[in-house]
Specification:
Layout lengths: L94 E5 L2 H8 L1 H5 L5 E9 L2 E9 L2 E3 L4 E3 L2 H10 L3 E8 L9 H11 L6 E5 L8 E6 L3 H7 L19 E3 L3 E4 L5 E4 L5
Parallel strand pairs: 1-3, 1-10, 3-11, 6-7
Antiparallel strand pairs: 2-3, 2-6, 4-5, 7-8, 8-9
C-alpha cells in the first residue's frame, strides 16, 4: 500500500539510455530459459536462486482477465479514486507491454510475506524500441514491510541493475496482502516519483484478498493528479486536495498491453530469501 522511493530524479532522464543490446546477464550461471512449443507457450519449472538471480520466461496469455475496481475505505484517499478513462495527456504516451505472467510470478516471490500480512514491492525495468516500452525485468529489492507499507532499502543496488542493463525505471509493483486494489496516499507519492522521471511509468497493485479484482495497473492523471502531488509535502497516510479540473487523481492505465511472448527477467536482491 505504501512504498516510498528515494531515487534522485536527475539520475534518470528520458532519452539518455542507449538502446539495450541482446540480454546482458548479471549472474549467467543461474539463468534458466523457457522455450516455446509449436502449439503454445507456457512457463517451465525453474529454481529460484538467491540473492540476485535472473530467471527468463516466455509467457502464456490464458491467466489474464479483466475485473472491476473496489477499494477499501480505511486507507483510501477520498479524492484519489481511479477513473477508468484517460486524462488528456494519456493519449500522447507511448504504449507499454508487460508479460501476462509478471503479476503471478511476483505473487510467488511475495508469498511468504503475504501469508504474514506484510507488503512486498518490486521495480519494473523496461527497454524502449519501435515506440514502445517493454517491461523485461522485475527487480525485488532489499526492503522493509508492514501490513500497510513497504520501503526499499539499498536503492543504489536497483540503480546499478537498471544502469547495467540500460533499462528505464518503468514503474513499480507491490502487494496489498489484506486490503483491496487501490493506490493509497503514500502510493500516490511513490508513483509521482516514478512518473516525473518517465510519464509512462505505472503502479501495479496486487491484492489477493480483493473479491472483485486481483490486481490493477494505475498512473496519476496528468495534469490533474501530477499537479496535486507536485504541491503536496505531507507524508504518511493523508488526504489530498481535489484536482483543479475535477478529474480523479489517478486512473486505470489505458496504454498497457499484455504480451504472451514477452520474456522478462527476475532479479531478487534480497539476501537469504
Amino acid at each position: 500500500m505504501g512504498s516510498r522511493s528515494r531515487y534522485d530524479i536527475n539520475a534518470w532522464r528520458c532519452g539518455t539510455h542507449s538502446t539495450p543490446s541482446k540480454s546482458m546477464y548479471l549472474d549467467a550461471q543461474h539463468v534458466v530459459h523457457c522455450q516455446a512449443t509449436d502449439r503454445g507457450v507456457g512457463p517451465c519449472a525453474v529454481k529460484h536462486h538467491f540473492p540476485s538471480p535472473i530467471v527468463s520466461w516466455i509467457e502464456d496469455l490464458s491467466s489474464f482477465g479483466n475485473v472491476s475496481f473496489s477499494p477499501d475505505s480505511e486507507y483510501v484517499d477520498e479524492q484519489a479514486r481511479a477513473s477508468v478513462g484517460q486524462s488528456s495527456t494519456s493519449s500522447n504516451l507511448h504504449d507499454m507491454q508487460i508479460s501476462v505472467r509478471l503479476t503471478e510470478e511476483f505473487m510467488e516471490l511475495a508469498k511468504e510475506n503475504i501469508s504474514n500480512n506484510l507488503e512486498t514491492c518490486g521495480i519494473l525495468g523496461a527497454s524502449f524500441r519501435d515506440g514502445t516500452y517493454f517491461v523485461t525485468m522485475l527487480i525485488i529489492p532489499k526492503q522493509e514491510g508492514t501490513a500497510h507499507s513497504c520501503q526499499a532499502v539499498n536503492e543504489e543496488e536497483i540503480h546499478a541493475v537498471l544502469s547495467e542493463q540500460s533499462l528505464y525505471p518503468a514503474g513499480w509493483i507491490h502487494t496489498h496482502p489484506s486490503q483491496t486494489c487501490f493506490l493509497s496516499s503514500i502510493d500516490l507519492h511513490t508513483q509521482y516519483s516514478y512518473q516525473v522521471m518517465l510519464p509512462e511509468a505505472v503502479a501495479i497493485v496486487v491484492a489477493p484478498k480483493d473479491p472483485t479484482r486481483s490486481y490493477g495497473i494505475f498512473r496519476l492523471t496528468d495534469p490533474g493528479g501530477m499537479e496535486v502531488l507536485r504541491g503536496c509535502d505531507e507524508s504518511g497516510f493523508h488526504t489530498h486536495r481535489e484536482t483543479t479540473d475535477g478529474s480523479p487523481i489517478y486512473e486505470t492505465c489505458s496504454k498497457v498491453r499484455f504480451n504472451p511472448n514477452l520474456r522478462f527477467e527476475i532479479v531478487d536482491l534480497r539476501s537469504g530469501a
